[in-house]
């Protein structure tokens, strides 16, 4: 049942266009029992990576789950060109594993060119 409920949490929630900060978050049932799932959140309104994480963590905790931030970076999303590029790092959380974030994004946007690099801020 927990795995099915985790499936109700969207794997990706990012802005439709622009360059913005993002975080990679691991969600698990409260108490750490059961399967975990990684999700990507990214928004231009956030001044800091922590702003995105804190908002998402509050929403997830209301649903009865725990979460932790695995790192952050930036996303360049060009919806007209169907391109997403993941790069950079978070000063507060460190660099997310962009290869993991990219796989999650490719699953959500199968018709996009999704790339990543460790360079850049």
UniProtKB/TrEMBL annotation:
One Pfam entry name: Ocnus
Subcellular location, principal: cytoplasm
Binding-site positions, substrate: 21
Active site (UniProt): 49 (proton acceptor)
Entry keyword set: Cytoplasm, Hydrolase, Protein phosphatase
Compartments, as annotated in UniProt: Cytoplasm
GO terms under cellular component: cytosol
Family per similarity comment: Belongs to the janus family.
Subunit field text: Monomer.
Name of the protein in its database record: 14 kDa phosphohistidine phosphatase
């Amino acid at each position: 049942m927990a795995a099915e409920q985790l499936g109700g949490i969207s794997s990706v929630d990012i802005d439709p266009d622009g360059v913005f900060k993002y975080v990679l978050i691991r969600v698990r049932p409260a108490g750490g029992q059961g399967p975990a799932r990684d999700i990507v959140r990214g928004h231009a309104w956030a001044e800091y990576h922590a702003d995105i994480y804190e908002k998402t963590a509050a929403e997830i905790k209301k649903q009865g789950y725990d979460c932790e931030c695995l790192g952050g970076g930036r996303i360049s999303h060009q919806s007209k060109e169907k391109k997403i590029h993941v790069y950079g790092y978070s000063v507060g959380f460190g660099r997310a594993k962009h290869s993991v974030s990219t796989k999650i994004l490719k699953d959500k946007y199968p018709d996009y060119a999704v790339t990543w690099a460790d360079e850049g801020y």
